[in-house]
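Board work, copied verbatim: HMA domain-containing protein
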Amino acid sequence: MIVEVFKTDVNEIELCHSLISQVHAHYPNSRVNFDMEDCDKILRVEAELIAPEKIIEILNANGYSCEVLV
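↓ predict structure ↓
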């Protein structure tokens, strides 16, 4: 499994569920979660294969910033 961690500006827990569903649509067997208590509003995606650009595209399309956390 590959794990990618992203810094986001998602600030509402209710929106996390919608964004997680959208990520699951592209990565059906993935594990996805947000850490809203972290100052970087971390999005963690675990899957067999991940294209970070696609995750960023999904969040950007919903009006949120997203970048790979290094």
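The longest strand covers residues 2-8.
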